[in-house]
Structures are given as structure tokens and as C-alpha cells.
Amino acid sequence: MDLPHSQASVRNDLAEPRIRPLDLDWVEDQAVIPTSGLVYPRSASKLLDVTRSLAEGNLLQQRFQKLSAGQSIVVAEPAFGAGLSFLATWQTWKESKPAAGAVLHFVAAEPRPLSVDNLRRTLARWPPLKPLADELAEHYPAMVAGVHRLVFDQGQVRLTLNFKEPLSAWADMQFIADAWILNETEEAVLPKPVIDAIRDHSRPGTTVSIRCADEKDPLAALADAGFEFYKVPGEACVPEIHAASLRPDAISGDITESHPPSTTIIGAGIAGALLARNLAERGWPVTVLEAAPSPAAGASGNQQGALYVKLGVDYNAQSQLALSALLHSQRFYRQLSFSCWHQSGLLQLAWSPEEADRQRRFCERNDYPGDILRQVGPVEARQLSGTTVTTGGLWYPNSGWLEPARLCEQLLQHPLITLRFGFQVTRLMPCNGRWHVSGDGEAEVATERVVLCVGHQTPALLPVFGDFRFKSIRGQVTSLAESVLNAPTSVVCGPCYLNPAHQGQCLTGATFDLRDPSPDLRTSSHEENLDQLSAIVPQLWTDVRPASDQLDGRVAFRCTTHDYQPAAGPLTDRSGQVLEGIDLLTGFGSKGLAYAPLLAEYLADYITGQPSALPVSLACRVQPDRCRSPAQQKTA
Is 554 helix (H, G, I), strand (E, B) or coil? Predict the structure, then answer.
């Protein structure tokens, strides 16, 4: 897969985050679009049969059954609508019983998505799809513009939805389809630019299945674009279904078979654990090397961690990346099969006059759906947080806190993940198409691909010359006995955060100590945490404030970048050329729990050559190449 375009070459036409869903009126369980009076969807009685015939036209069942572990297939359509084509494709996938580790990607655009309530009500017309329809509705994206990645069936089914017009969506997305579904709602979506875009996002042999009863122009246009028509199995049942495949001479490129190379991840913190699990669920065997005797030895090892981001006053690309990461991580943690996620809600306090003014301007300039965040006053803030806050703030109902160390342990428990603890990496060296990983007193590891997920230790292991702008920031957290304070029921954030009680303790912190390499606990750092906590939650203590020299805690080092944006992607040399087989996933700062799930998904997409979870306009923001010093930076 190619690198994302440079930031300068990508148009950034961001608007307010909220989008308006398609309005529907319901008359005797019939959905009607008020502005046009049209029934939605049309021909509902036979639409499922048509949709299944479109899947048959693309020979999907046969193709699904031929996939092996580590391989994927990509199905795309211009308009998602109520998701009927996706659900029918997903059902065909399950009926085909594909190999474990094979992946189905479904990519679609939709400028006017249904609300989740209308989605549920519309899909209720097809009872056979109910189990899958309920799962789709449970994790359906919030009504905000942009790309949303949904993951189902333990990673074997991935849905990428872009809430934009198709042409605009595809121009900002990296994917190559193996099959296209063009249903009856697309007769207005097949002018030449759209057909050209379909061809551009195809490879030799890509199939198209189209419903075209009377109008032959789309068939002629597809033929002109290089598609050759073939007879559809079962065509007698739905005669208006036509199918074609792209001729090899119609587009440059080759059909390639993907077989998982040997892959080694260095680091077993949240970044390494998430990436290892992500690749393993796609059928890729992974070896994880960790210097410590157990996972989450660094910044991921705290007993509690808050899930939050701080969205900018202006809705720019940085805010869009943060929002995408937050929404993806909330979906990801809700789907965990093990219980280390606690959706308590999270309150970002307007804790100072400056922060109150920032939140005021934020609310004036942005329109976010209430299921993402909403502004609350002091009384409601006390009710929601369950503690003695005196100011209002921003309430995130779907956020909360995690047990990061336990999360890492659970993520790494997969049959395709091999763990090697106590492996202190000392050198990375490329030789004969492999990376050779050396460690103190350890047998050398030869691997086709290596990924650095080592946080603040990244600069010491980079196998290239150059000045990378990574920063190590010391952070000390303080553990407080539940009995000494009025513990909140939600996460409370200000200049520090306070988590609800867990196993008799509440975690608060963390300090932000730049250019401080000391790993030792300090009474002064505990004192700083308590001072900040007392300022944002008056009357917190049940009796007297605890003595700082009697408290326990933990010191860890965050890794951040010069622009405080993460780094995820291939490593490049000083000329901007990609170094084959080596990638970075680091630079999360204090927001690793929020950013890591999405960026692990994105990097796994890149490594496996599968459709990207990030649009090009955001992927360019996380390229590691940008972290070189300006004198050495060269756009790939």
C-alpha cells in the first residue's frame, strides 16, 4: 500500500462535526421520505432477494470459501442506505464458513445516513437478518462526518463507512475493491466520474454486480471503462441483475496473493498488545518481544486509566483525528470479551476561568451530538460524577476508565501470538530481506517485518540516522484509599484526573515532568497531584487530606512528539524513502488508551494491505517522517 499523500496535497474542507440524518416519516410501519413522498426503501418486499442476487452475481460465496488465513476480500458499494447489502454480504460470509483468520472488508459511503432508531425500524422488515441487524445497530456510528471503522465477528468482518458523498468519500479513502454492489438506489450515482472512480478503486478481475432493469446506459458505460459482462448464476430469478469483471488491460496493476510474513513487535504495552491482537485476528502470526518479565511494564501498567481526549475549540483536522480515535476506542472497548472496561461516563470540568472560557467558545463553535458530549452545569455535574465538584463542564456519557495492565495481558492471549519476555533489544539490522533483532544474552530473531512499540525508548532503537523529535515526559500517579475521600462514580478530569474506586483505591494524576529522567517516586509529585485534586473537587476528603509522604503511586514515562500527534506508519530514511519492513507505533502522550485502538487498526491495515481505517486527510497527520527535524524532513 502506498503512503498517504503529504498534508499539503490533501484538501481539508472540514465542517461542523454533526451531520443531519435522513428524515423519515412512518405511516403504518412504512417509511416515507417527507421531502419527496417516496417510500424508503423502494420495493421492500423483494429487495432482500435482489440484494442476495447481487451477492451471487459477484460469486461471493465461492470466493469467500477459497480464502485462507491472512487473506482478505473487499466488497464496496456507493451508498450504504439501511445497510441491507452489507448485512446480506455478512450473512453470506457466515454461511460460507470462511477460514479462521480470513477477513471480509465492506466499504461504503453515505451522505445522509439513517439515525440508529430509523435503522432499527427499517431493518425490522427482514426478520432473517435480525441478529446481524441488531449487532450493526448496537455499534452504529454517531452522526458525525468522516470515516468510521466497525469491527465484528472477532475481527473477521470489518465495515468502513464514510459519511460523505461517494466521489468525495472515495477520493479521501485508500482501498481496492474485489467486488462492487450497485443496487437500485444507485441509478443517479453512475455518471462517468463515478464509474471512473469505481475503476480506479479496482484491480484486474474486480467484479461488479448491478441491478439495471430498463436503463442500459450504465451497462455501456461500465463496458467502456473496461468491464466485461458474464452470465450471473440464478439470473432467471432476478433478470435485471448484470455482472462484469474488469479486464487486465483496463487498468495497471497485478492480482497479488497476500501471505503473512514473519512479524515481530517490540514492546508489550498498550500499542504493542493492540497491534499484535489486531494482526492475529487477521490470521497473521506475531512474535512480541518485551524487555520486562510481563506486559504493560511502562506507561500502560497503571491499575486505572481514563479514556478521554481534549477536542479543540475549532473543528480542524487535529480535532477530527481525536474524535475519530475516541469514538473508535469506545466501540472497541464495549466489544471486549473480557471485563476491564468500565463505562462510568467522564466529566471534563470547567475548573478555571481560562478553561471555562475555552469550553464556552468550544460549545459556541461546534455542534456535537449529545451521545458524544454535552455541556452540563454545576448541579448536573455533581449528580453525574457523584462527588463534590462546584463547576460544570463537558459530559462524555460513553467514556469511562480501563484497567490497562489487565487489558494488555488479555489482548496478548491468542494462539497466533508468541511472547518472549526478558528480551532487551539492543540492535536492529537489515540483512537479506529480513530484520535481525539482537538482544542481551538472547538468540537473534530474524523477521521479515518489525514494528517498534516502545514508547519513550523509540529514539534509542531507531536503525536510521537523523534527529527525530520524540519527547519523554515523566508522569507520577498517586493511589488513594477509597476511605479517605468521597470517591466519584465517574471519571473527573481537570488539570489532573480522578478515577472511581477500584479494589479499594482511586488513582489520580499524573504529573507532567518534562526533561526529568528520574524513575523514583517523589513526595513532591504526590503533593502536586493532591493540590490539583483539591482545587477541582473541594470537600473531597472524608476527614483530613492524607499526608503525601504516606502515599503510594507509580512513575512511568510517556512518549510524545513535537506536535503532540501520534506516529503510526512506516519508517523512512533521510530522503523520505520507505524502509521495507519496519514501522512505528508510538507518540500517544497521555492519550494512549484513546488513540491506540484506532491507530493499531490503521497500522494493521497498512501492514496487511487492507482498506485503511483512516482517510488520507488524517493518515498524513500521523506519518512518522514528519517527526524528523525540519532540516532533515522530506515528504515521502
Answer: strand
For residue range 613-624, what is the model confidence (pLDDT) as tens digits?
999 999 999 999
CA pair distance 505, 161, nearest whole angstrom: 40
Greatest Cα pair distance in the chain: 82
* Cβ partners under 8 Å of residue 340, min gap 6: 402, 403, 406, 407, 410
Q: What is the DSSP string of 302-348?
A: -S-EEE-----SS--HHHHHHHHHHHHHHHHHHT-SSS-EE---EEE
Contact between 154 and 283 under an 8 Å Cβ cutoff? The reply is no
- What count of Cα atoms within 13 Å lies in the side-chain half-sphere of residue 221? 18
CA atoms within 13 A on the CB side of 86: 29
* DSSP characters over 396-419: ETT-EEE-HHHHHHHHT--TTEEE
Of the candidates 161, 59, 74, 152, the one whose C-alpha atom is nearest the C-alpha of residue 114 is 161
In sequence order, what are the beta bridge partners of 244? Answer: 208, 229
DSSP state, residue 45: H
Q: How many Å apart are CA 342 and CA 403, to the nearest integer?
A: 9
Flag whether the pTM goes above 0.90. yes
CA distances, 356 to each of 362, 364, 394 (Å): 10, 12, 10
Angle between helical axes of 116-123 and 130-138 (0-180°, round to 10) = 180
Confidence of residue 29 (pLDDT cuts 50, 70, 90): confident
- List of residues 6+ apart from 322 with CB closer than 8 A: 309, 310, 311, 312, 591, 594, 595
Cell of 561: 512528539
Q: Taking Cα atoms as reference points, which of 419, 422, 429, 431 lies closest to residue 462?
A: 429
Q: What cell does 542 get?
A: 472524608
In whole angstroms, give the CA distance from residue 177 to residue 245. 12
Dihedral angle sign, alpha carbons of residues 252, 284, 597, 622? negative
Inter-residue contact 449 to 261 (CB < 8 Å): yes
In this structure, the number of other CB atoms found within 10 A of the CB of residue 406 comes to 15
Tell me the average pLDDT across 166-172.
94
**C-alpha cell of 187?**
441509478
- What CA–CA distance (Å, rounded) separates 484 from 497? 17
- 475 exposure class (CB count in 10 Å sphere: 0-12, 13-18, 19+): buried
Residues 488-516: tens digit of each pLDDT: 999 999 999 999 999 999 999 999 998 89
> In angstroms, how far is CA 324 from the centroid of its own chain?
7
Other C-beta atoms closer than 10 Å to the C-beta of 293 total: 8
* CA–CA separation, 4 and 9 (whole Å): 10
Q: What average pLDDT score do residues 90-119 get?
A: 95
CA 477/CA 552 separation, integer angstroms? 9
Q: CB within 8 A of 370, min separation 6: which ones?
A: none
**Cα 475 to Cα 512: distance, rounded to the nearest angstrom:** 5
Which domains, from first to last, does the chain contain?
43-250 (3.40.50.150), 263-298+406-468+563-627 (3.50.50.60), 346-397+471-561 (3.30.9.10)
